[in-house]
Every structure is written in C-alpha cells, then in structure tokens.
Design a protein that fits this description.
It is an enzyme of class 2 (transferase). The chain is an alpha/beta fold. The protein has three domains: about 50-350, Alkaline Phosphatase, subunit A (3-Layer(aba) Sandwich), CATH 3.40.720; about 445-580, no CATH class; about 595-815 and about 835-925 and about 985-995, no CATH class. The protein is about 55% helix and about 5% strand. The strands form two sheets. An eight-stranded mixed beta sheet has the order 4-3-5-1-6-7-2-8.
C-alpha cells in the first residue's frame, strides 16, 4: 500500500511539472543569440536623434479635428514633417512598448515576468549602439535602459525624477513633464558641445558606435489618464502643456542651429489608454499611438488624396501607418549604426527623404540582418533534431533565399529600385515567418506528450492506493455509455476518459482481492526500478545528443515514465482486465435505488453545468446561464434539498442564484466608478451580518459590542465604505489624501482577517459571518463599482448552499459548534466509500463557484487593464509590485470564501457520519477529492488544446491565461479546501477543544 502522503506528494509534483510545461513550450524566449556586429556599410544620415515619448497618450486626443490645443505639433504636421499611427501589440504596457521602440522586437512574456519596470533590459538596444546616449524621464522606464556593460561610461547619462512624483493624486501632475524638459534645458546650456562632435567609434570591441541619441520620457499623459481619465478637462489641459514643452524643446535647438540642422525628431507614445483610464489590453484606443517625425532627411508633408479617414486639419496630407518595432531600424538608419541584434522591425522607407539608391541599400541591410537571425535559428533547431526527421520551412528554403537575393541585387544593378525594394521587403516578411516557424518547431509534439501525460496522471491518481468505491445505483447507464465504440473514442477525448476511469476504478465487485491473487499479479520491484533507470538514461542521452534542455526532454518521455509506473500497479492491470472482459459489477448501497435513466440525466446535467463554467472563461454571459441553471437544480435533483419546507427552500435558492446571474451581464469592473455604490454595498453587508447574528444568537450572556469580534468587524465594514467614499471624493477635488487615511486602510487590511481568526467563538454562524467580513473589508477597500454587491450576493448563495447540503434545519445548522478533531469515525463500510450523486454534485458546484468568483466581475482583459484607482486607499504613488499584490489579494478574497464553504460542508458531513472529501479514511483518497482532480484535469486539457499561437496578441494572451487559471484550479482547490478548514478552526485553539463540540 502506498501511503497517502506519497500519493499527495506525487500528485503535487506532477501538477507543478505539468503546470510549468506551459512556460517551457509557449513562453520560450524568441531572442536569437550569437549575432555579431560588422561595420555598418552606410554613412550616418543625421548626427543626433531626439526621441520624445508621451507615455500613455491617446492618439484621438492629440489628433483632434483641428488640433486646437496643440498648435506647435499642428504646425509641424502641416509644414515640416510626417505624421501617422504607430500600431502596438498586447500587452500595452510601458515596458514592452519601450522595448519594441528601442530594441525592435516585442518582448516575450518570459522576460516580462521578471519585472515590468525595475529590471534592466538584457538585450541589445539603441542605447548600446549609439556613441552617446542621454535620457531623462520616469523612474519606472528610463533606468531599465542603462546598458549593463556601459555602467560608468561618461558617454551615457540617464537621469530620472524622484519616485514620489509618480503620485496619481498630485495637485500638479504635469510637473513630471516640466521636470524632464527643465533637466534637458540645463544639459544643453552646459554640455551642448558634446552634440557638436563627429562622434563615432572604429573599434569592434566598442561596437562601431555612432551618433547621439536623446530620449525624453514624458509621463504626465499616463498619470493624468489614470487619475482624471482621457475625457476630462484636466487631460485636455495636460495635452496643451505637452505641446508647450515640445515648443520649449524646439526653442532650445533653435539656440543651437549647428546641432538642429543635423538632428531628426520622433514624437510618439508607447501605448494608448481606455476611456476609464487603464491600459494593457488590445482595444484600438490602447494599441494605436500617435506618430510625428520631422527634421533632417525626414520628408515634408505630401499630398495623398487616396488616404481615407484623414483629419480635417491635415488637408489630405499623407498618413503613415507603421508597426511600433519599425521605429527601431529607423533610428539605427538615421544614426548609421548597426540595427540592434534582435530587431524584427521593417524599415519604414516612406519616412526617409533620401535617394532611391540609398533606400535600396538601407532596406538590404535590414533584410540581411533578419536573414542572419533566421539562419541562426535554423541551425539551432536542426542541431536539436534528427536530420532525417527535420523539416525546413518550405516557403523560404535556402535555395529560395539565394534566388531572391540574386534577383534583388540584379534589380538594383539595373536601377530598378522599386522592384528591388519590394523584393527585399518580401525577404523580410518571409524571414519573419520563418523565425516564427522555427521558434514554434516541435510545439505540436510537445503538446501531444503533455496531453498524454495528463491522461496518465489521471489514471495514476486512481490506480495507486487501496481505496475502493461503491456506487449507489445499478449497472445500467454508465457501462453502456462507456464501453464498446466509446472505449476507442475515450483515447481521444479526456472527458470520456475521465468517466471511463470512474467506472474502471470505482465499480469493482471485489474490493479486496485475495492475497494470492494480489501476489500473483504484482511484479517484482526491480522491474520497475530497471525500467525507470532505462527511462532516465534515455532522457539524459536524448538531452545531450540533441542539445535540448533536460526539462524539455523530460516532458517528451514523461508519458513513458507514468506508463511504467501504471503497469507496475496491480489495480491498473486488474481494471484493464475487467474493462475488456466487461465483468464489471456494481454494488448497490442504500435503501432506495435510482433508475438508470434518471442517474444518466443527472450526470448529463452535471456535465452541462461544468460546460457553462468552462465556456464562462471566454464568454462571461454564459456564467449567468450557469447560475440560472444552478437555481433550477433543486427541481431536477431530489437529493439536493431534503428538509420539510422543500418548496419554499427551492424558491429561496432559485431567487438567490438568479440575482447572482445578473453580475456577469453588467459592464466589466473598471469601465465605471461609483463610490456611492461602494458605500451602499458596505452598508447592506453590515446590516445583513448584524441581522444574521441576532437571529442565530440565543445566549443571554452577550458581551458589549466593542468586545465582540464580529461586531467590531461590522463596524470596520462601515468604516471601510466611508473611507472609500472619502478617498474618491478627495481625488475628484484634486486634494491630497492624508497619510492617516492610508494608515487606517492598511490596519484594516491586516487586522480584519486576524480578528476573525483569533475569535474563540466557533459556532457556525459566528464563524462564517466573521470570516466573510474579514475578507469583505479588504475587498471593499479596493472596490470601484458593484464588486461589493457581487461579494454580498455571492456569499449569500454560498451560505445557502452550505445549509442545504447539511440536510439540517436553519437553527440546527447555524448553531453547530466546530471542533479541531472529528467527533467520531465514519461508519464502517467494509472498505468502501459511498458515492452518490451528492459526491459528484459537490465538487462540480465547488469548481463552478471558484470560476464564478473569478469571472463574476471581470475577465482576463479587465484584470490586465488594472486601474490604479482601486488601490488609492492604500497608495497613490506608482508601485507596480505592491499594486499587483493588492490586486491578487482582491481576486483571492471571494475564492477563499468558496474554500471555506466547501471545507465546512465536509466537516458537517463528517460529523453526521458521511465520508466526504474533507475527511480521509485510513490514508485513502476520497472520491470527492478524486472527482475534483478529474474536473481540474478536464479543464486544463481543454484549455491546453485551445492555446493559440496565431491571431491577435490579446487572443494569445487570454488563451494562455485561461490555461494557467484552469491548471491552478486543481491544485488551488485542494489548497483552498485545507486553508478553509484551517480558518474555520485554527491550530492554536486546540486547548479549547474540550469546550467545542458538535451538537
């Protein structure tokens, strides 16, 4: 017999390995290493490039009908330069946006998870290539571009304003832009001579650096958008101040005409912003950034009557649309430096005013640069696979590359520059497709191996151990559904496969095989040891021979390892024997047998509920249908409510679920704010908590309210609502939030859970109300709209669910007292667990509620576009790490409440003599826990199969996020169940256990 601890440890290890597989398959870095630098073959077009980024600036707020608020930029567009749109990618955040601008590629998620702002960029950028680099701006952006190998280099000057100036509620937010321009003005007064030199390096060790690069990061637009929103008058005033600062910069250069005539200017934004003041997702307002370019070798305004949707003020002036990463090779070509190593941008030739012959040379160098990345990537993949199995990118083979390069060279020699440019552009696009092909090479096989590992892991969860389960019900429906032709389909469908495992492992007629039979079917331990040793040798050999990481090779042979362990398990072999011979028999337990058709109908309804939760990941509105379907459950399942006044309870449950169904149909949280609604939800929650406590309490010895933890929590709930209302009011008045308010909010955040946990009253009603308020108070301090009402409704449904599952009357259930240990052992069942519809219903309800708690008020995009206004009670100065931690805690609050509810159901059922998921018997895994893992595996495999690597980056990011969440549900469900049980009766109250018993 394998111990329960070993099974749990093995399950957790496999879960973590399979969970991490997504990072090894989909989150691998696209960077190509091994790029060397050669002396650029072209001269510099300009001596200095000034790059101005208005962080978070909305393109439609700048390009208004007449640009009446920005006369300076309007004059540049009409008389001096070119304008257009820069199209960004998701996530629309500051770090990936600036990486695309200065390094020329869209940073992979693996790098982003290392830190959005603080950690330095570890790859090549314009800051590395330029001879001198000067940057002024925000502390969240500018420092990360300090080249690691140029620390202490006098030719690199990077300065950021104090972190305290990132206060979203500051009275004068535009001061950050003024600070940047002031520092640049001071620099030009004292060090302008540095820009007059013909700056270049002829040393290969120094990277053949040339030119001067000046980066001015203006972040007032981002701060103002978060605080006042883009449609406010304050935002318009900020844009006017931005234009004034642009005019100041131009005036500075007019004072130095020798520098100005050798300078090119680029003005853009790293990302946009939504109407409600957030960014990160893929709406047009977030992914379209304004672009204005002027100066030396930049074309002046040209007529373009063929353009549509031009602004009135442009008078049909041509608009340029480029990708954000295309600006990186543009800067490199202007300065005459090598394009940064990992740049995948395509040089926008329309933004250069040079001869066609020069353009051909520039685009040729751009094409050869990306071709070199493709060649390195090709060699890497070829070295990691058997040559006779390796498949080259068919659309762009080496022969085709040579042919196209020869054709382009011939066209340039014949002065057919237009055709040569088009050929090189086609080479660039095919090279990018090839890079994507080789980057994703082998992903299908890896995915197939991981999916098969999920299946083997599910089999392993059932097969290891000695637990046998008896099913309440006859043999009829499941066996007929899952044998025969469905057996073959089960190998392709994990849903059917999980049900098949249910039949195979829980429906044996002989729960305790005879000792001789068991001995006869069990192989020697050395067979398994030898097999595992051979698998490990194969793992090391393949990893070394094909230059793959050890972990990646491990994933490929993980199904083999799990299969060997399964074949070593007697129950697995017995199950296969019984399955193929169709010798299953079902042991009926209970006085009343259900018909096969009704049992099959209940299973179908449970699967339907799971599908509502599953597709609710993608379409929130389906969660509403799932909640309504949940409300009708008592009318379909007679085992759900067994109390006397069943019709009345059916209506109560249905009404509660219908109210809960409203919230997924409401706008996403973050789209609107209403401090009044937040205060109202806190008042309603406090009143209902007070009423429930008064109903449940029968003791005549009641302590004063200030000595009762739950009444203190009710008071704190009212205070938290008032604090939110006060903070929002002060922000709207542009008044700084007193430090005392922040201190009180932090105290409430920490003290509320502790107050509930240290409460020595273990009556169910008291404990539930206390723990609910303990997580509602921190949750409410971060509310901006209807989240508080959602939490209240959600808690009401959970309270009702716990009560109805207990099969006890209202006062009888809520008057129970919790104990640290079980009152008694469950009744003997001859080694069997009793598995009925409730054993399937409770885990499914639990998973559905976990999903509902996460997506009830938002989705992945709304979480990604986190609005800092929700944490103003705690901080107003930008701190991504702390703000992210608070956001995660807010998301977890309703999820933890679900874990508490599920744990309480287990405790009550255990005390009443039913073996459930919360009470292991003799170290065995319980059916509900196993069913919970099956459901989690089903969700994980489903979303693993739905992972996207094509289409918009928002779709790709959401598919990955869905998989991570689904994968987390299985492990988190077990953790939350234990955490909820611990919260109900913490370990430090064991000394009081003699006074706490179940009634």
């Amino acid at each position: 017999m394998v111990s329960s601890t070993f099974r749990t440890l093995l399950s957790v290890v496999l879960y973590i390995l399979l969970f991490y597989s997504i990072f090894d398959v989909y989150y691998t870095s696209p960077l190509v290493h091994g790029m060397d630098y050669k002396r650029p073959s072209r001269p510099s077009l300009v001596g200095t490039v000034v790059f101005i980024v208005a962080d978070g600036l909305r393109y439609d707020k700048l390009f208004t009908l007449e640009m009446e608020n920005t006369p300076t930029l309007r004059g540049i567009i009409l008389n001096e330069g070119s304008w257009g749109y820069s199209h960004t990618r998701v996530p629309t955040e500051s770090r990936p946006g600036h990486v695309a601008l200065f390094a020329g590629f869209y940073e992979d998620v693996a790098s982003i998870t290392k830190g959005w702002q603080a950690n330095a960029v570890e790859f090549d950028s314009i800051f590395n290539r330029s001879y001198q680099a000067f940057a002024w701006g925000g502390p969240d952006v500018v420092p990360m571009f300090q080249p690691l190998h140029r620390v202490g280099d006098a030719r690199v000057k990077i300065e950021s304003y104090p972190h305290v100036m990132l206060d979203f509620t500051a009275e004068n937010i535009t001061q950050v832009d003024d600070w940047v321009v002031d520092r640049f003005s001071d620099f030009m007064k004292t060090h302008s001579h540095l820009l007059l030199k013909t700056n270049s390096s002829e040393s290969p060790e120094d990277g053949f650096r040339k030119g001067n690069f000046i980066f001015l990061h203006l972040s007032a637009a981002d701060q103002m958008g978060h605080t006042k929103k883009p449609d406010s008058e304050a935002y318009t005033a900020m844009i006017h101040n931005l234009d004034t600062n642009i005019a100041r910069i131009l005036a500075i250069f007019k004072e130095h005409p020798n520098i100005a005539q050798e300078t090119a200017f680029i003005f853009t934004s790293d990302h946009g912003m939504t109407d409600w003041g957030s960014h990160g997702a893929g709406s047009a307002h977030e992914t379209i950034a304004p672009l204005i370019v002027w100066g030396k070798h930049i074309p002046r305004p040209m007529s373009a009557n063929w353009h549509s949707h031009l602004l009135p003020f442009t008078r049909n002036l041509g608009r340029h649309d480029i990708h954000q990463a295309d600006l990186c090779p543009l800067i490199a070509c202007l300065l005459g430096i090598a394009i940064p190593a990992n740049s995948v941008g395509e040089l926008p030739l329309d933004l250069l005013d040079v001869d066609s012959s020069v353009k051909v040379g520039l685009i040729r160098e751009n094409a050869l640069h990306i071709l070199k990345q493709l060649h390195i990537k090709y060699e890497e993949q070829k070295a990691g696979h058997y040559h006779f199995l390796f498949r080259e990118f068919s659309k762009f083979t080496q022969k085709q590359i040579d042919s196209m390069l020869e054709s382009a060279a011939l066209q340039a020699t014949n002065h057919d520059y237009v055709a040569a440019i088009e050929t090189y552009r086609r080479i660039i696009r095919l090279s990018l497709e090839g890079l994507d092909y080789y980057h994703k090479y082998g992903r299908f096989f890896m995915g197939l191996a991981i999916k098969h590992s999920y299946i083997k892991r599910g089999e392993l969860g059932f097969s290891i151990g000695d637990t046998k389960v008896s099913l309440i019900g006859p043999r009829t429906c499941l066996l007929e559904l899952l044998t025969g032709a469905a057996w073959r389909a089960a190998r392709l469908s994990y849903a059917v496969w999980s049900l098949l495992l249910y039949v195979d492992t829980f429906c044996h007629s002989d729960p305790k095989p005879r000792g001789n039979e068991h001995k006869r079917t069990k192989p020697d331990s050395w067979v398994l040891a030898l097999s595992l040793f051979i698998a490990i040798v194969i793992l090391g050999f393949l990893s070394n021979a094909h230059h793959q990481s050890l972990l990646r090779t491990f994933y490929q042979i993980l199904p083999l390892i799990l299969g060997l362990i399964l074949l070593w398990t007697p129950r697995y072999r017995q199950g296969l024997f019984h399955l193929f011979c169709r010798t299953h028999s079902f042991k009926a337990v209970g006085e009343k047998k259900q018909s096969g058709s009704k049992y099959g109908l209940m299973l179908a309804l449970l699967v339907m509920l799971m599908e509502f939760g599953l597709w609710g990941f993608v379409h929130r509105s389906l969660l509403s249908f799932g909640a309504i379907f949940l409300g009708t459950w008592p009318y379909l399942d007679s085992t759900f409510i067994k109390l006397r006044n069943r019709p009345k309870l059916q209506r109560i449950w249905c009404c509660a679920c219908c109210v809960l169904a409203i919230f997924p149909l409401l706008p996403l949280v973050g789209s609107f704010t209403s401090p009044t609604l937040v205060l109202f939800s806190n008042i309603c929650t406090s009143m209902l908590a007070f009423v429930l406590l008064r109903i449940c309490r029968r003791s005549e010895h009641v302590l004063p309210w200030y000595r009762e933890p739950n009444y203190l929590l009710i008071f704190e709930s009212l205070v938290s609502g008032l604090l939110v209302f006060l903070v929002r009011t002060l922000v709207s008045w542009s008044v700084s939030i007193p430090i005392l308010v922040h201190v009180i909010c932090w105290i409430l955040l920490i003290a509320s859970p502790l107050l509930a946990l240290f409460n020595k009253n273990f009556v169910v009603c008291e404990r539930l109300v206390g723990l609910t308020l303990a997580f509602f108070i921190p949750f409410s301090l971060m509310n901006v709209f209807y989240e508080g009402l959602f939490f209240l409704t959600f808690a009401t449904v959970l309270f009702t669910w716990i009560w109805l599952e207990s099969d006890l009357e209202f006062h009888e259930f809520y008057s129970l007292k919790l104990t640290t240990e079980s009152q008694g052992k469950p009744p003997s069942t001859g080694g069997l667990f009793h598995v009925d519809l409730a054993s399937l219903r409770r885990p499914l309800f639990y998973v559905f509620f976990v999903i509902y708690s996460f997506f009830g008020t938002g989705n992945i995009a709304s979480i990604n576009t986190f609005d800092p206004v929700s944490v103003y009670c705690f901080m107003t100065v930008l701190n991504p790490a702390a703000m992210g931690a608070l956001l995660i805690f807010k998301i977890l609050c309703p999820i933890v409440l679900v874990g508490i509810a599920y744990s309480l159901i287990g405790r009550v059922k255990e005390s009443l003599g039913s073996a459930t998921a919360s009470s292991p018997v003799h170290g065995a895994l319980h059916p509900e826990t196993t069913f919970l893992m099956i459901i989690a595996n089903f969700l994980a495999v489903h979303f693993f199969a739905m992972l996207k690597d094509e289409g918009s980056w928002l779709d790709i990011g959401e598919s990955i996020s869905h998989y991570v969440i689904a994968m987390s549900i299985g492990l988190a469900s077990v953790v939350l169940s234990h955490l909820g049980s611990w919260m109900l009766v913490p370990t430090w109250v064991k000394t009081h256990s003699d006074r706490m018993k179940f009634l």
